[in-house]
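## retry 2 of 3
previous attempt timed out at serialization; input unchanged, resubmitting
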Amino acid sequence: MEDRIEIEIAIEEPKHAEGLHALGVNRIELCANLNEGGLTPTFGQAIETVAVTPIPVYAMLRPRQGNFNYSVSEQHQMLLDLDMLAKAGVSGIVVGALTRDKQLDERFTQLIAYRAKQYNLGITFHRAFDVCVNPKETLEQLVNLGIERILTSGFASKVDADQLSKILEWSQNRIQIQAGSGVNAEIVRALRIAGIQAFHCTARKWSLPQEDTLGFSGEWNRDDNKIKAMVQVARNEFPLKEPM
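## retry succeeded, writing output
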């Protein structure tokens, strides 16, 4: 069977979506505040991003930085934001919610899943998975809720290929396991050998003008070289087992 390699790039600015499909990218994760790990984008960000790209846009659904235990008010806000993002034309959402004791908030996740499916949206469960106390059980719960994929580093600050291989084994191909956090061309080969076929990364670099007296100058630019290198390694044909 031919491998189905998927590359997802996290962006914050709609202009960075332009031309990603030509670089071999399959999907966009749209966020605000990537420096905070990604928060819910605005309606305008979502509208403009969807307008400039033919590839699916999944929008982050996260009301604040920090932990993934959300109050009733925050949950209500997330549901309202989901309605807004659906109207903006996104193809899916990226979300994760845990209880105070770091187990899956199954009730709220089920509610989110039900609402998303009413809009025919896909769902990625993000790296809240990496801090839950019972990941194998959580994976089973997410499968039963019909979640499309899990974005995970393998419980580490940067991707751990061995742990991802274990999670992939748990999944038994019932839910996609997507590698994220520190993914680049150098680590992709090890991830491929581990069986991972879905990759997520942020590819941008900060540019400053020569003079910046008040601190308002500078902008993020897309790092096309990083994207091209990662796509080339991920899709390049090579033996997936190391030689004896």
